[in-house]
Design goal:
The chain contains 1 helix and 3 strands. It is an alpha+beta fold and 51 residues long. Strand 2 and strand 3 form a beta hairpin.
Length: 51
C-alpha cells in the first residue's frame, strides 16, 4: 500500500463488525508510512518497518 492511507483502507474492518459474536478491538493497517498516524478513532496506520 502507499504512504498515505485513507478511510477506504478500513472497509474490511467494518465488515468484521457485522459478524455476530465477533468483538472488534483497535486495528492497524500496515503500510509504507514513515510514522504511525490515526486513520480513524479505532484504526491506526503503522509503518511496515515497525513490525
Amino acid at each position: 500500500m502507499g504512504v498515505q492511507i485513507g478511510v477506504e483502507a478500513t472497509k474490511s474492518f467494518l465488515r468484521l463488525e457485522r459478524i455476530a459474536g465477533y468483538e472488534l478491538g483497535f486495528g492497524h493497517v500496515i503500510c509504507q508510512t514513515r510514522e504511525p498516524y490515526p486513520i480513524t478513532r479505532d484504526i491506526q496506520a503503522v509503518p511496515v518497518w515497525a513490525i
